Amino acid sequence: MLRKFSVIALLFLGACGNADGDNHEIEELVNLGARGSVVCPPVSILPLTARITFFEEDTESVVYRASLDSAIISCTPKRDGLPQSANISFSGIAESDKASIITGELPVFLTVLYQQRIVYQKRVEDLAVVFTPEMTKLAYSGKFEDVAIPEVSKAAREDLRFLVGFQLNKRQLQYNRLTSTP
User: Fold this and answer.
1) Which candidate, 153, 94, 150, places its Cα nearest to that of 126?
2) Which of 117, 142, 109, 115 lies closest to 128 in space, CA to CA?
3) Domain that holds residue 173
4) What is the pLDDT of residues 87-132, one digit of tens each?
């Protein structure tokens, strides 16, 4: 099955990390190209899709909004040491000004891009979020697992890139364009 997605955590804001307050797991995922390690293609958040806003139907009233704040990649090597597959972790903050129970979904996409224009693969998955009257702001995180990395020549590997963002509808995209800071 092509779609593999797992929610890592849905936490109250400020409750990130382990009991010691450290977050060693995330540090281990960062690959800076150390000797003997697999160099992963870069991953970034597409700026125009880093925010999503959900409105009440046929109104301008905001129900909830979210932002993507980080994306981290780790790779699994093949026998020759080149990356074969990747896991992409992402996280952000979701918030609502409503003092009620709100159940929603954050549609997150992952695109594997080659030469800045060729889409090798795209996945869109929904991450569930639940707001309560007491919890109007929450941290979320998720992970795309075992994403195939295209086999390209050694010289073309630097042309691979992973992009993460929210899958926006026309209204959400227009809102982001109008409210983005230059």
Assistant:
1) 94
2) 142
3) 5-179
4) 999 999 999 988 889 999 999 999 999 888 889 999 999 999 999 9
